[in-house]
Amino acid sequence: MVPHDGHAAATRPLGAASQLVKGTCLHRNDAVIRPAAAAGACVALEALAGSCKMAAQPLSTAAEGRPHPRRKLPGFVGGAAGGFVAAFALQPLDLLKTRQQAEAFAGGTPRARPSILRLAREVVAEEGAMGLWKGTGPSVTRFCLGAGIYISFVDVLQGMASSNTATTAFVCGAIARTAACTVSLPLTVIKTRFEALKAHEYRNTFSAIKQIARAERWSGLYRGFGVTLARDVPSSAIYLALYETMHAQWKEWHGIDANTQRGIKETFAFGFLAATVTTILTNPFDVTKTRVQVPSTLSGIKEAPGLTGCFRVLGHVYRSEGMRGLMNGLTLRILRRPLSQAIVWSFVEWSRRGREQEQP
């Protein structure tokens, strides 16, 4: 068999880029390229080069001379890639949803809910078209990190389970989302404030972290942690149980072997349907989360409430505004979240697929 040198060609440009960044780390120290950022980019490029080398290098051949399937990409890669695409593409819907929820109670007083078109026109008129992508930095970072951690935990937990039932998926989804929320919540708080406020004092994500920690202590970065878990953990548990069940039923109805790789079209459709159900069920907690996480000058909530305090906020919304208040922003969430989940899981299933063995 002729030796395969494709990996050398695949990794040579990345190796050169890594050396370039290393040189930048040593010789540049200006406002454009900072040493810490350059060092991080260097590490990332070296890791990517190693991954490309591993993916391009052929594995040992089988007895009959056919290559084994390529290694599957780590779950973190698929989740983070899908999170990046979904967060960037759908950021305008997320911003409008947050603005709609925030302006409905500006100053702590319930107001008439602004329409989606009116909000969009106001943002474009006052902040320009790019104003619709305000908060993209923390949003993309949060989504990439959160989705990557979530999928990694799901892969590990499902691999440890003896069977892949709906109950197993429910438990795996709940544990994985708890871990992802714990790590990414500070970015969620910052994202919400970037989106809710037309003008804020934060220069960037890192500036926001320092200012919130200084003004509200570190607990300010975990403002609304309880209600975020109350929204995301049941949502992810129900979502994963529905998603896995729909895939299993689809294969059973069509006589497809359970171990057959999942199709991207089915994955997108099932992800969209499962997310639509969970989005409707958890919208009251999303409304409560927004009210708790925006600055007190906008929400009227002076102290960051714990879990019981968040449920009191939810009860107050229901008493003062009824179910209409708890369903504020639902239309925009239904437009965004099912699409987001469908995109993420399509990337995840793509990353899990191994190349079929070549025929002799």
Write the layout of secondary structure elements.
Layout: H1 6-27, H2 35-56, H3 75-103, H4 116-127, H5 136-160, H6 166-196, H7 205-216, H8 225-253, H9 264-293, H10 296-299, H11 307-326, H12 330-352
Helix pairs in contact: 1-2, 3-5, 3-12, 5-6, 6-8, 8-9, 9-11, 9-12
Describe the 3D structure.
The protein has 360 residues and is mainly α. It has two domains: 6-56; 75-352, Mitochondrial carrier fold. The protein is built from twelve helices and no strands. Helix 9 (264-293) crosses helix 12 (330-352). The two termini are 14 Å apart. 38% of the residues are buried.
Write a brief structural summary.
This protein has 360 residues and is an all-alpha fold. It has two domains: 6-56; 75-352, Mitochondrial carrier domain (Mitochondrial carrier fold, Alpha/alpha barrel), CATH 1.50.40.
Distance between the termini: 14 Å
- Care to count the β-strands? 0
CATH class of the largest domain: Mainly Alpha
Number of domains: 2
Descriptive key words:
360 residues, mainly alpha, Mitochondrial carrier fold, 2 domains, 12 helices
